[in-house]
Amino acid sequence: MTEAKFPKNFLWGGAVAAHQLEGAWQAGGKGVSVADVMTAGANKIPREITAGVIPGKNYPNHDGIDFYHHYKEDVKLFAEMGFKCFRTSIAWTRIFPQGDESEANEAGLQFYDDLFDECLKYNIEPVVTLAHFEMPYHLVEEYGGFANRKVIDFFVRFATTCFKRYKNKVKYWMTFNEIDNQSRFNNDFLMCTNSGLLLNNDSNNEAAMYQAAHYELVASALAVKEGKKINSDFMIGTMINFTPIYPATSKPADVLMAQRADQRRNWFSDVQCWGYYPANVEAYIERNDFRPDITEEDRIVLKEGTVDYIGFSYYQSMVVSADKVAPDDLSDPEDVIVSNPYVEKSDWDWEIDPVGLRYSLNALTDRYHLPLFIVENGLGAVDKVENDGSIHDPYRIAYLRAHLEEVRKAVTLDGVDLMGYTPWGCIDLVSAGTGQMSKRYGFIYVNKDDEGNGDLARSRKDSFYWYQKVIKTDGADL
Ligand code: P53
Question: How many CA atoms lie within 13 A of 158 on its CB side?
Answer without folding.
Answer: 30
